[in-house]
Model the fold of this input.
Amino acid sequence: MAILGKERWDVWEMAYESILGLQEIFAEDPTERVHKALLEVYKQYCENLFDAIDKNKKIIWSNFAVPGTLLHGFSDEDIFWYQFEALAVIQSLVGLPGEVNARMVDSAEAAGMAPEVCSVDRIALGSVVEECIPWGDAAFYMTTPCDSQTCLVNCMTAHNSDMPTIVVDMPYRFRPEESVYMSRQFREVIDFLEQSLGIRYEWDRLKFASELYNEMMETILEWVDLRRTSPAPQGCETLSLMAAVVTVFSGARQGTHYAREILTDLKERIERGEQATEGNEIRAVWYGDPMWSDLNFYNWLERELNVTVPMDMFGYYAPVGLIDTGSETGMLEGIARNALRNFPMTRQLLGSMEDYIDDYVNLCRFYEADFGVFPGHLGCTHAWGAFGMLKRTSEKINVPLLSFEFDMLDPRVTPLDDIQTIFTQFVNEIVIPRKS
Amino acid sequence: MAELIDRFRKVLDRPCDDLVRTHKESGGKVCGYWCGYVPEELILAAGMLPIRIRGVGSEDSSSGDSWISSRLCTFTRWALSAALDGHYDFLDGLVGINSCDQVRRASQVWMDGSPMPFSHFVPVPRATREVNYEAFHEEIIDLKKHLEEFVGKSITDDALREAIAVTNEKRDLLNRIANLRKPGVSGHVDGSEMLTISVASTQIPTSDFLELGRQFLTEREESEAPESTVRAKLIVCGGEFDEPDYIEVLEGQGAQIVGEFVCFGARAYKEMVDTRGDPLENISRRYFYHVPCVRMGEKFHDRFEILKEMIREFDAEGLVFQRLKFCQLWGSENHNMLDFCRKEGIPMLSLEREYGVISTGQIKTRVQAFLEKIEEQRA
Done:
């Protein structure tokens, strides 16, 4: 299927076709706000990407932790910011992860990338090996949240040594001085990209983007709080997608629009007295990588086991302070603070284990979890490294913990049936008897 | 001669060598550290003996596995097991680090699970511009302050200079021993011996190491290599690697290992600390900017150039790239190395391994095939 009237790389055409198909399915249902909003932002993403290619805009390569708000100081008439993870995420959400993600993983491994590296980064490398992404004019990477992302930076910088590249270090600690350190690095990024791309950075644009970010974040914080409602009115299928949208659309209207839609949807469901599950609700905190290889798994959980996930690691945002748009420094430090403290995985896993454990304990308490889930994504070394502590903490706070091994993007690793069996056994044999 | 190398080998058998025990019994303190980004000079200047953490001591990794799972690399699991099983109880302190996610987690579990009188965590930036160096230097200043509080005295510039001098001397000695393998240099040392010696240098007091090492160098400078058929000269490269028995297997197939571009090898001793100017600043600069580890994401080409220079200096004909299973960082390096070695026409063998386990049969088969390939190309 053509995108903007032209034939494109097959993997993107497949994704685009899926998006349009799903839009048709959800079009007539007025209660499908969230799906519609999500599909619309991703449709726009695909179109913006190919519009940028057609118009020879400057492409900035980055990894997903790069705060998009910062890059909105450049006009989107001049640049397009391509995150390596975009293809994998879009394929997972609307496409054919079993086919496309698997193909990219295989390409990366055939090129020597170790299978222990997170599939997000193997897919990213695979997409470069297969040359099905736009080539960058410059690159801006951030060393977060994990070694796998460093692996991606290692490979990309090795193979594209002619591409002007700047790497920003994400610090281990989260004190106020770290925001200052980050903001200094952000200034270097701005100067670097201006020089490399020959495009002027505009602080007024950054101010506008920061205001949009603030509006988006205020909306999200309200939504995070309302998700505590019990029984849960809004399902959990799209919960983790908040991270995908915030990552790509920070500082853009699409991000603010999506946040408003998901909050409105939640409020409407509360008003209508809806419940995500039919029977007696069982609440789980999903503390780790989501099941992006098959989002229907969450619908299955609600339908078959009456288990809903009121909050997970990827949907959780904390009130860490909005961006001060009163000055350049205020904006840069605000963006830095939010990047450090309000980006999923960075917040919980980049620093010490206390951050990881504290959030887990708080989420279990705030969302009245009947059990916790440790989704053991195989490439997630820093989570696996904290698993022992998590288990012991879960025992201490008397919340049963379910753990299982899988891959968040490659469905071949653990068959869905096996995961469903694990959940069914755990819920029936441990959770339900405890609840009754 | 055999006695000296055996003495070095004995050092590797367990975490606390007799020389360390003697140091402790005479009132000395010992501080463990995980990685080559921790300045041993600072620990030394504080009056403590720096010992680099390894995975020996325990019979298995089960203690570590129960905390950091079997999905992490075997080195960290074995090292953590050794700590939790009490084999590192002789340490008075530990400097943890975020060299990689696995060491970061193991550091913290150790510090929380087996607290020591002194523990400190040094976060090292992963980008290498001046702004990042300044952040690293702040961390080193912080480490210095904490060490001073612990030992109850200031670490003076003179103490730092003295520590730099003796550590540089150690590095220089290691380089001279390693250089016995250069073309045109008389004397000999084989790869397993060299790795034994370089690992041992991180496990015993520097003064003892210098004494033994100088003796070894003197003896070996005047000796000739035992007769054997050398099929090809190779350099072993990769990440954590402190098991000389592995190299013995490689050399048993006819490979002559002329370099160890690994964490416990040349990357640890290749570069000196500058002795001019501010000693603390010099220490920080040397450690931050030394041969970059793969954890410094964008530094592959710097690393590769240094490796290529080593290949030229030692007249090597190929590389054995080894990495620990579950090591992500060196796993990504495997991809880069394969690609660039192919482009540069450098034969490369890629091997995966588990810490504490040497699959002799597998290694032999692959190394033999690799050596045959080099011989064919040579012909």
Remarks:
- The two ends of chain B are 36 Å apart (CA to CA).
